[in-house]
Amino acid sequence: MNFRMLALMALLGTAAASVQAQDKWVIGQSAPLTGGNAKFGQDIRDGANAWFAAVNAKGGVQGRNIELLSVDDKNDRKQAGVNAGQLLDNREVLALFGFASATLSLDALPQAEKKGVAFFAPFSGANPVRGNSPVLFTVRASYGEEMEKILNFWTSLGFKRVTVIHYDDEVGKQNLEVVTQYLKKINLSPMALPLKRNTQIGKAEIQTLLAQKPEVLLNTALSGAAAQIQKELVGMGRIIPTSSLSFVGADQFITAAGPSSAGVSIAQVVPSPRSSLPPVRECALALEAAGLKTPMNTTHLEACFGAKVLAEGLRRAKKPVSRASLLEALSNLGAYDLGGFKITFGNGAQHGSKFVELAMVTREGKLTTR
């Protein structure tokens, strides 16, 4: 075979690969797929992938399948920023989706703004992802709305001494400030237990906590830290009423804390995975079809909801579909009813949901709102 023929074959192969790449809509994601928060990141990825697979099985959107391109950030802020840059440099990526926390979004969101790319459905209600960025879209309530519901419940029962368990960083301190501002309205102020991210909880932290003599614990940390604290307290025979933000990851927390999780209340920003609402049932079926062997959890469901809304944005995007046309479609989505769970975007209002309910872990390790 001569050189000219080899060159022609290489050229045809490159062209075929290009056509193949253009036959799908690529969505980029950075998530903790390994490390201490891997279960949470994997559940986000799997919940979204299940819905995209269900859409693809029916012919995709505007004639093309949707592909979620997920890369591992190991729950590290710097790596998440690097991942975002690499994803955005890939011109096929239409949007960034499902970053697992506000901290992991801090260096990614400004890059999406610079490129004019939608930063869709971060898994956080913290202030850094509640601003008025033209590319930022959320499908969950804010932590402020979650904390207001939690604190209103406990203070209505007469509890006044609240300790906030938070990370000793930018986002964690902002979460503490939200509680401080709320309690200030009723002439109260919180105590605080600051934690370092990605570190083990020791006896010193527990003794510091107990010295504050809290009547209520409000946890804003991830499942690993929250579970360690809960198991230490229960092991000492100290039962302190505890509520956690949805950020803890209910399923992940229950698994990590085991029997010690019983009695803890956790804010939820989506309906119960056991709900009879049509979109909940649809997501459960999609996950089952995708091979999930365990019951769908709230993280799966939130990711599935986010994927449903993003797919609808793609469906409405004007041709030729681009980063800009998808951004425009999402901005003008208006009120979109998934079937009993509504998301509303438009006129600069891009935080789509205020749904919050409190659920409690039973002795059987189940989450119930009853």
User: Roughly how much helix do the residues carry, as a percent range?
Assistant: 40-55%
Q: What is the number of helical segments per DSSP (H or I, 4+ residues)? A: 13
Number of domains: 2
Walk across the major sheet and give the strand order.
Answer: 7-6-8-9-10-13-14
| Arithmetic mean of pLDDT | 92
Order of SSEs: HEHEHEHHEEHEHEHEHEHEHHHEEEE
Strand content: 15-25%
Strand segment tally: 14
Structural class: alpha/beta
| Broad CATH class of the largest domain | Alpha Beta
What report would you give on this structure?
The protein is an alpha/beta fold and 370 residues long. It has two domains: 22-140 and 276-345, Rossmann fold (3-Layer(aba) Sandwich), CATH 3.40.50.2300; 143-268, Response regulator (Rossmann fold, 3-Layer(aba) Sandwich). It is built from 13 helices and 14 strands. The protein has helices at 3-22, 38-57, 77-89, 102-105, 109-115, 143-156, 170-184, 203-211, 223-235, 250-257, 278-289, 298-316, 323-331; strands spanning 24-31, 65-72, 93-97, 118-120, 136-137, 162-167, 191-195, 216-219, 242-244, 265-268, 334-337, 342-345, 357-361, 367-368. A seven-stranded mixed sheet has the order 7-6-8-9-10-13-14, with helices on both faces. Strands 2-1-3-4-5 form a five-stranded parallel sheet, sandwiched between helices. A two-stranded antiparallel sheet has the order 11-12. It is globular and about 60 Å long. It starts with a helix and ends with a strand. Residues 1-21 have low confidence and may be disordered.
